[in-house]
Amino acid sequence: MFQEFGPKIQSIAGPVHSRCVFRTGIPQYYIDNVINGIFIDEPLIKSYMTCIFKESRLMFENGELNYDLGAYLLPEDIKDEAISNAKYCEVEAKGIKNVQDRLFQMLKCYYGLDPDIFIFF
């Protein structure tokens, strides 16, 4: 299921996904919607997004993104564009105080810039 993300992301995606589904109780179809670019403003989705980013250590407890780890995990062919898009979307969502709301808007922005490099599981 996670092979297309490259071996580094593949190694963490399954366990992180399982833990966060268990913790949040999110139905798989909510996750599938996000994968397909359907971002419904729903607390379970926001909670799941935050969980996968914190569990994978892509987000620090203060809500800041861990770009060094992101660069390490991303496949080489999308790394530069992915980091650039993430930084752009972080600036776009900067005024949003709530971490879950900010991450939701960042991921929505990121998907909108290039859905072909959107990684979500």
Automatic annotation (TrEMBL):
**Gene3D superfamilies from the entry?**
Pheromone/general odorant binding protein domain
Annotated GO molecular function terms are: odorant binding
Q: Which Pfam families match?
A: PBP_GOBP (PF01395)
Q: Which domain of life is it from?
A: Eukaryota
InterPro entries hit by this protein: PBP/GOBP (IPR006170), PBP_GOBP_sf (IPR036728)
Official protein name in the record: Odorant-binding protein 23
| Source organism per UniProt | Monochamus alternatus (Japanese pine sawyer beetle)
Query: What gene, per UniProt, encodes this protein?
Result: obp23
